[in-house]
Structure formats: C-alpha cells, structure tokens
Amino acid sequence: DAAPFAPFFRAALAVAREAGAIIKAAFEDGQAPPNPNIKDANDVDLVTATDQAVEALIQSRLRDAFPDYAFIGEETVAANNGQAPPLTARPTIICDPVDGTTNFVHGFPFVCTALALVVDHTPIVGIVYNPILDQLYVAHKGYGAWCNGQSLPRHRAAHAMDARATLFITEGGHDRSPIAMDAKIGTWRHALAADGKYPPVRGIRCTGSGALNLCMIARGAADVYWEVGLHAWDMAAAAVIVTEAGGMVVGDEALDADRRTTWDPQATPFDVMGRKAMAIRKRDVAFMRETIERVIDYPCPRD
Ligand code: IPD
C-alpha cells in the first residue's frame, strides 16, 4: 500500500481478473473463431472479437479511474492504422488485452492479459495474468515480483548463468521477410549447433506469448529470451516482473548492431518502444554481453 502507484496496481489487478474471466470463458467454450481476422498486411498477425472486447473493458475501467494517464493498447493502435501515440514522460498505461492470440485461437493454453504502467519511460507496474493456467504474475518497481502470491524467482535462483546449460526462448514471430528469416534461422542454427566460439544451448522453447516468455525468465524456468519484432504491449508489463525478480532485460539500446557499442548497462534504460528484447534470469552483465553476441540482429521499425 505504501508503493507510489498502489492505487493503479489495485485497479489494474481487478480489471486483469475481469479480463481473464472473459478470455477463459471464450477459450473453454471454443468460441475463438477458426478464421479470425488478420491485421492489415500480415496474414499471421491475428485479432479476435475477444481481443477487442477485453481492450475496450480495460480502457474504460482504467481511463475512468486515471483520466490523466495516457493509454497505449494493442487494438487501439491497430484501429489507428498501426500508429502508436508517442510515449512521453507522462504516466502511460500499456495494454495487451490478449497476448498469445494465435494460441487463443488454437486452444494452446499460453494466453494472457498484460498491463503495465510506464512513468518517465520506465516500466513501474507490471501485471500478466494467464487465466487458462491461472497464473498471475505481478510486480511493482522496488517491491519485488510475485506469481500467485509466491515471490519470484521460483527456480534456479542461486545458480550462476552457464552458457552450456542455457534453456533459450525465442519465437518465429510475425515478420517472415527474408532478412528476418535469415536472422532468426541463423540464430537458431548458431544456438543449437554452435560454431566453436560458444557451446550449444541445451534447448529452445517458444510459448507464443512475449509477455509469458518474459515471465518464464522471471520464474527462473528458462535462462535467456530473445526476440525482435515485439511491441511495447508485449514487453512493458513483464519487463518489470523480470527486473524485480532479479533478472535483466535490455532492448533496442543494447541489441541494435549500431547502438551496441554505446550501450552502458548502468545508465541506459530499457527501450519500451524499441521492438527488441533480450532477457536473462540473473543480473549478469558479462553473460548478457556474451548472449547478445550470439544472436543476429535485424532492423525493425519502432513503435
Ligand atoms: C505476439 C506474441 C508472440 C510474438 C509476437 C507478438 P500477440 O503477440 O507475443 O509470441 O512472437 O511478436 O506480437 O499478437 O499474440 O498479442
């Protein structure tokens, strides 16, 4: 209750549970349409009536309670030709009503609502709720991270990062352009087969939800997550959860090949609108630098 954004935290938690009930009912009734709508110009980027209804609910509840806060939501941006409003220093609610929409449509149970409060470009509150598996991840900057009331991380907290024992999460993602495919497939090959410089990782996983991938890092259930092409609503909430669980998240400032050399891990804040994320389960700058060298960057327009 002493946390500066405790009122927002409480309101966001309540609406995340309401959203979860709607998503779970639609998921279990098999209401997800077999032929969902696709977003403009990308036939693997799906949207359903549930995404839109849940975002409308979240927007009305939180905008009524916090009228001075800005709002960036996945479906509101989609309705505005994909154009996100600029992120300013003003407190900004960032919302993904259904992260893992493809999972939702197929009945694959990694589906969540992600809600963040970003203040002065820094994620402060993060709530990620998977109503299908009933896993509620929450964090408030400076106050720790929790899953269903238990503090995070749950696994492997004491172990040092070890390249030979890495469980690596990444995704196919929506961008199937030749340059993106070369980078993604090249990174998979490099991670699995290695090439003499680093040992191969133990395994690769994808949950199909950027927010839940980050939560797997916060739990300590996986060691590294990398993806290019994420949006602010996929990353902002879970980024607080990872850092409050003792992990580390970097974005465009560290992953972009041109900006890498100027990246200062002490001074550079996570770039919420930068479309890129690399997260590791422990704050280990040397391991982060080594891991960044193992992935192949490619350009991606900012949110
Ligand atoms: C997508 C998921 C997916 C990731 C994509 C995201 P959506 O979000 O997080 O894992 O690979 O980059 O856009 O469309 O399900 O909300």
From TrEMBL:
Its EC number is 3.1.3.25. It catalyses: a myo-inositol phosphate + H2O = myo-inositol + phosphate. One of its GO terms (molecular function) is metal ion binding. InterPro entries: IMPase, Inositol_monophosphatase-like, Inositol_monophosphatase_CS. Belongs to the inositol monophosphatase superfamily. Its cofactor is Mg(2+). GO terms for biological process: inositol biosynthetic process; phosphatidylinositol phosphate biosynthetic process; signal transduction. Mg(2+) binds at residues 74, 96, 99, 234. Keywords: Hydrolase, Magnesium, Metal-binding. Pfam families: Inositol_P. The keyword Oxidoreductase does not apply. It comes from the Eukaryota. It is an enzyme of class 3 (hydrolase). Pathway: Polyol metabolism; myo-inositol biosynthesis; myo-inositol from D-glucose 6-phosphate: step 2/2. SUPFAM superfamilies: Carbohydrate phosphatase (SSF56655). This is Inositol-1-monophosphatase.
